[in-house]
Amino acid sequence: MIKTELEALRHELPEGVTLVAVSKFHPVEALREAYDAGQRVFGESRAQELQAKAPLMPADTQWHFIGHLQTNKVRPVVSHAALIHSVDSPRLLRAIAAEARRQQRRTDVLLQLHVAQEETKFGFTPDELRDFLASGEIEELADAVRVRGVMGMASNVDDTDRIRADFRAIRAALPEGCDIVSMGMSDDWQIAVEEGANMVRIGSRIFGAREY
Questions:
Q1: Cα dihedral: 170, 31, 105, 103 (round 10)
Q2: What pTM does this model have?
Q3: Terminal Cα distance for the chain, rounded
Q4: Which residues pair with 1 in a beta bridge?
Q5: pLDDT under 70 in the chain at which residues?
Q6: Crossing angle for the helix pair 28-36 and 2-12, to the nearest 10 degrees
Q7: CB neighbour class for 146 (10 Å; exposed up to 12, middle 13-18, buried from 19)
Q8: What's the pLDDT score for residue 55?
Q9: What is the pLDDT of residue 119?
Q10: Do 19 and 10 contact (CB within 8 A), yes or no?
Q11: Contacts of 37 (CB under 8 A, 6+ apart)
Q12: Cα separation of 77 and 18, whole Å?
């Protein structure tokens, strides 16, 4: 099933759109099946789970961290993640930069936007992001973190117009010189791609229901 779904998705996704297979809560056996079917980019949302899975997968596996990241969990994520999608505050960006310097590496990150109707979502509002970009702090941290683009989620509603507007707002906030727009999941990725996503995060369609 995993191989079949991956092949179907690759056929459906336009050229230039990166597929992040959201593997959180799924066993390593399922990840290996996806890897054997050609998938290399996997998305995890818990530092502990990423730390446990990474040594069990081949070295060319590319790990993306897509969940809410607490500052006290930064170390293992910086160690393993090729891209951190969920930088939702200046404080977190500073913590990632400090850890990247300690590990003598430069970490790629996305700035997470909050445009959805739900209060539970994390991230900068478009106005907050604009102010943060204008502050010059990103340039000060550039030796340790490289801001590659933005990430966000649409409102969890059935209203296609609202979902489309949310994705449009995320895309519009992409900072100058950045190249990644990570948005769209199993249920809404087609709309996200139409509105400018070039990275989608798809889990349940590939792996089935999560195993908590």
A1: 120
A2: 0.96
A3: 20
A4: none
A5: 210-212
A6: 50
A7: middle
A8: 97
A9: 75
A10: yes
A11: 2, 3, 6, 7
A12: 21
